[in-house]
DNA sequence: TTGACCGGATGACATTTGTCATGCTGAACC
DNA sequence: GGTTCAGCATGACAAATGTCATCCGGTCAA
């Protein structure tokens, strides 16, 4: 009885490579490939998938939200997150969302297949290089509003734009940005955005 | 006589997928795979490569600089640029650096092989979806110094930091940033950085 | 109950940033 | 030659940003 696998990744080439590599394994069967997060739950249900392999960064529904949705809709399907960059914060968030495993994309093919098998068995799989970093950086120090405002600032808009979008006074927005800057260690809002993003505190 | 191909891409999975897909073609032989741009010229010379397939965004030496270096050191080797995102500005810059072709990564495998063949024959290959955009956005409107200062600002430092790094007065730095904001259409320096980056005007 | 504490929210104030007018150099073009 | 224009460079000034003290409502422990 082979493992029924659903793969979602927005880069077609990577998706194809993953499907091809894992499809070669005798005990793994790729039953669906998706280019974004929106159809993941439907595909998992339709194909009675055992494992869903999801990219963190995807258009539509992001991988972490998709992971949570899959766990809710199909508890028997385990989730393995795959990502390009090892943003430490993502790991913890993914685990909290119900993911069983977390690996970076350039893991050797053999180990990827092994990760799929372990996840299928209900074991947890974490890329060792990420685990150490994750413990270092820990949880996001940002409060909900701080993260929200910082995210709204990430496309470079002015305080006026952000305050309108978030229904807050400009002073409040400045204060949140100030707090976010202090917590990230950045000296400007742009630096704070970059640092928070690198730590996976935004999504 | 098969086409001798060198592949350079920092994402191991993509690199492997490209090598595997193109290696299947009867008339293409992958003679070297690199994870960054620094060793490209040496690899091209050593293996007497006919075509070099380079990612634009790589650690070490970026793809466009690497393309120029290859053309200088081995004029008989044609360069095919491959990129994840279709930043319009990259296309023109790559062509000016001597590249013969430019395609996005999720082009179907069959077309990638065809692109390699065309480039090998000395023909030019441009992803059609990019060509239109490229003509729209045209050349970078930024002057050398403007781009330099904007790039220095891209990690979120203050004007004081930038002025020290660029050996300019703070007023001058502000002026360049102001000009860059006007030319990109951004209302803050952060937005200008983002827009310039999206257009491929920074590298 | 009280007090301590945290997250949310706000306005006043100093600092930084963005805009503008100006001067300078060198290349291109009558 | 002279003139025109683009890019480089700078400082003065107005506008936006970042900092700070403060207040409010809820939660948790003593």
List descriptors.
elongated, DNA-binding, 2 domains, alpha/beta, Arc Repressor Mutant, subunit A, 10 helices, 203 residues, 6-stranded parallel beta sheet, homodimer, Rossmann fold
CA gyration radius of chain A, whole angstroms: 19 Å
Class based on secondary structure composition and strand pairing of chain A: alpha/beta
Q: Span from first to last CA of chain A?
A: 37 Å
Largest interface: A-B, 26 and 26 residues
Strand order of the main beta sheet of chain A, please?
2-1-3-4-5-6
Uncertain parts of chain A:
none
Name of the top-level CATH class of the largest domain in chain A: Alpha Beta
Q: Give the H and E element order of chain A.
A: EHEHEHEHEHEHHHHH
The CATH architecture of the largest domain in chain A can be named as: 3-Layer(aba) Sandwich
Write down the overall mean pLDDT of chain A.
Answer: 87
Oligomer: homodimer
CATH fold-type name of the largest domain in chain A:
Rossmann fold
Brief write-up:
Two copies of one chain form a homodimer. The first copy, chain A, contains ten helices and six strands, in the order βαβαβαβαβαβααααα. The first copy, chain A, is of the alpha/beta class and 203 residues long.
Explain what this protein looks like in three dimensions:
- The structure is a homodimer.
- Chain A has about 200 residues and is α/β, with parallel strands linked by helices.
- Chain A has 2 domains: about 5-135, Rossmann fold (3-Layer(aba) Sandwich), CATH 3.40.50.2300; about 145-200, Arc Repressor Mutant, subunit A (Orthogonal Bundle).
- Chain A has 10 helices and 6 strands.
- A 6-stranded parallel sheet of chain A has the order 2-1-3-4-5-6, sandwiched between helices.
- In chain A, helix 5 (about 110-120) links the parallel strand 5 and strand 6.
- In chain A, helix 7 crosses helix 8.
- At the A-B interface, helix 1 and helix 10 of A face helix 1 and helix 10 of B.
- The first copy, chain A, binds a DNA duplex (30 and 30 nucleotides) through helix 7 and helix 9.
